[in-house]
Design a protein that fits this description.
- The protein has about 110 residues and is mostly helical.
- It contains six helices and no strands.
- The chain is elongated and about 40 Å long.
- The relative contact order is 0.17.
Length: about 110
């Protein structure tokens, strides 16, 4: 996957006035919060709670987009749309892809 889709460093630098410490803090918090959201999404999928899927995905999509994590934002958007269209199987599939995207983001965030 294109590195700028995983983490748009130029966007993050612009957003933080090139403050390396702040960039590390933001990416670390995004990894942690996304991991928590993924756990909640898995529970919502297991319970067939499409409204919860939609809400959790919507919230997370905005945060990822703001930080410059376009791939994760796109997957959260997919989950939001799939939940809107009662596509539980699609939510499950996108959630699995999201786990991979989070691992890629984590690796990209710690590399310089």
């Amino acid at each position: 996957m294109q590195r700028s889709l995983i983490l748009d460093r130029a966007h993050l630098r612009s957003m933080t006035a090139n403050d390396e410490s702040l960039m590390r803090e933001i990416t670390s918090e995004l990894v942690n919060s996304t991991a928590r959201q993924i756990a909640l999404l898995y529970r919502a999928v297991e319970e067939s709670d499409l409204q919860a899927c939609k809400g959790l995905a919507h919230e997370s999509r905005g945060v990822c987009a703001m930080v410059g994590a376009a791939a994760m934002a796109g997957l959260f958007r997919a989950i939001e749309l799939q939940a809107t269209h009662d596509d539980l199987s699609g939510c499950r599939s996108s959630l699995q892809q999201l786990c991979v995207a989070l691992a890629e983001f984590r690796c990209e965030a710690i590399s310089s």
